[in-house]
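hiii so um. not sure if this is the right channel but i have a protein structure encoded as tokens and i wanna go backwards to a sequence. like what aa goes where. can anyone help
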């Protein structure tokens, strides 16, 4: 054991070691004997520093949780495999003050045209201040998220793979590939589609295996647009999974089947693209100067459970699907925003008993819906006559604003509504970045706390002021008297009655400080 290598915890941590003993129903793994256990130096160990792990680390650090991220790779990934950040993720970045940095490294693109690549513009009045797609390479997103987490005090150790763990009533002992053992209160597997944590937990990952593999990339072409248009129009009539379409700035998005490109372990090369293009179109269109090239399958799977005792799953570790519509990274980042404050509350000792389990209750159905929409989109990309007829019909239907809006809200995740029980439509939805007296609402959410937004100016969240901010603002651009926002920006309560508010503050934020013994 090498636990003496553990670096000191961040000085901001202010909790006693004995601050919480959570219930761990169904805890898996055989308890290590107390004498055997390494010292408890971390509250949460996160396996994997991809976009999900880095986001979760930052969210936890907003609440002074001691976080260690263990990343198998020694260097950050350099391959690109993303179209961009969709509206809800951009809103979340704005909520934490990260959006300006992201904007410096990306390009704004229209929000429409992503559902099954059906080229319909987004409806004019999408209800968001960030109604665009931000085209930004995944390595850049990962770097910015990791830097943010580290700046907030998270420790990230690279070249350290999680190889095993066992959990008991008090925590989790994590074993690294090099034999080192570390201990934390919770472990979160953000370790991607082939998640070691998920496999060791024995959580089922049902779904469909990959049936087809596809190459996808962005590159320049060496022939005029008219020549491409003439060739590609004919090819769409033949049964190939193929497109070559302008993406702006002289760049083309290229999709070709991966059949015959055999080395799955290696990223595809420009020559692979050229060969596939020649096989389909008889010409490689002079493609050159690739911005990125990638390969994906259409495996679609969803973890049966997101939590077993003190071990949780998030991001691709919990769900995989084809990248059509560009939702995977976005979904993982949104998982992390949902989980972060709940896990922090559990560790800080103020979480209501069932709060942590709402993570699975809320996010599992969202992932189910994303998996379903990607299945539908893959069908709509087929060149078989039946799916092509359905595609033509859907293309017509998308001329109805409501249909187009519904699909865009699905892909961009601004249509997500969690089930918080009976109530107005806004209950359970995210609140857009409305105008408030101080400027924009999201500017008030950087610290990841709850917010009581009160137009009546007569309510109070006083007993919860260590967890919930209060903004009394009759000018707030709301058409209800008052809302209680969770740290992830979802509306947890709407009303104007103090007793009802207190009940909901207790439901989401636990007992008031004087009764919680905090
Ligand atoms: C071609 C392609 C295009 C895509 N386009 C988009 C898009 O436009 N939009 C979108 O939202 N998504 C897109 N995706 C999906 C997106 O890339 C993933 O959903 C996203 O990377 C998931 O993030 P994650 O952090 O959950 O997992 P990952 O990014 O897989 O990160 C997991 C991390 O865990 C590490 N790890 C693994 N095992 C261990 C271990 N045992 N111990 C420690 N660390 C470990 C890995 O090294 C890795 O760094 C695309 C995917 C592909 C293939």
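sure thing!! here u go:
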């Amino acid at each position: 054991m090498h636990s003496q290598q553990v670096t000191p915890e961040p000085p901001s941590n202010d909790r006693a070691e004995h601050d919480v003993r959570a219930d761990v129903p169904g805890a898996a793994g055989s308890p290590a004997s107390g004498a055997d256990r390494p010292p408890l130096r971390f509250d949460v160990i996160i396996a994997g520093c991809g976009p999900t792990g880095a986001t979760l680390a930052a969210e936890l650090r907003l609440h002074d949780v001691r976080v260690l991220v263990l990343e198998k790779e020694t260097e950050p990934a350099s391959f690109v495999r993303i179209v961009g950040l969709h509206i809800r993720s951009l809103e979340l970045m704005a909520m934490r003050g990260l959006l300006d940095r992201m904007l410096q490294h990306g390009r704004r693109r229209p929000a429409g045209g992503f559902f099954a690549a059906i080229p319909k513009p987004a409806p004019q009045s999408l209800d968001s201040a960030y109604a665009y797609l931000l085209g930004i390479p995944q390595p850049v997103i990962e770097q910015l998220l990791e830097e943010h987490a580290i700046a907030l005090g998270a420790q990230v150790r690279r070249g350290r793979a999680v190889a095993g763990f066992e959990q008991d009533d008090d925590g989790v002992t994590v074993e690294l590939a090099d034999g080192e053992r570390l201990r934390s209160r919770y472990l979160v597997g953000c370790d991607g589609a082939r998640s070691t944590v998920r496999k060791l937990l024995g959580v089922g990952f049902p779904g469909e295996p990959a049936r087809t593999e596809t190459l996808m990339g962005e590159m320049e072409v060496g022939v005029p647009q008219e020549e491409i248009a003439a060739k590609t129009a004919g090819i769409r009539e033949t049964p190939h999974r193929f497109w070559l379409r302008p993406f702006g700035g002289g760049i083309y998005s290229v999709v070709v089947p991966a059949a015959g490109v055999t080395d799955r372990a290696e990223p595809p090369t420009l020559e692979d693209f050229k060969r596939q293009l020649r096989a389909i179109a008889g010409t490689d269109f002079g493609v050159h100067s690739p911005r990125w090239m990638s390969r994906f399958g259409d495996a679609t799977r969803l973890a049966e459970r997101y939590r077993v005792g003190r071990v949780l799953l998030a991001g691709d570790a919990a769900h995989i699907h084809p990248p059509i519509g560009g939702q995977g990274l976005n979904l993982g980042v949104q998982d992390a925003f949902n989980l972060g404050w709940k896990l922090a509350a559990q560790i800080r000792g103020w979480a209501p008993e069932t709060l942590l389990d709402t993570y699975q209750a809320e996010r599992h159905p969202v992932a189910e819906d994303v998996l379903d929409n990607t299945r539908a989109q893959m069908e709509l990309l087929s060149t078989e006559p039946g799916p092509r007829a359905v595609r033509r019909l859907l293309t017509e239907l998308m001329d109805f604003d409501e249909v187009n809006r519904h699909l865009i809200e699905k892909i961009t995740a601004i249509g997500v509504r969690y089930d918080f029980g009976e109530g107005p439509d806004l209950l359970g939805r995210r609140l857009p970045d409305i105008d408030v007296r101080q400027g924009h609402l999201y500017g008030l959410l950087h610290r990841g706390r709850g917010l009581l937004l009160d137009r009546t100016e007569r309510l109070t969240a006083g007993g919860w002021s260590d967890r919930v901010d209060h903004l009394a603002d009759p000018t707030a651009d709301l058409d209800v008297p008052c809302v209680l926002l969770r740290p992830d920006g979802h509306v947890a309560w709407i009303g104007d009655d103090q007793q009802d508010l207190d009940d909901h503050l207790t439901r989401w934020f636990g007992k008031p400080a004087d009764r919680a013994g905090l």
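oh and The longest helix spans residues 358-381.
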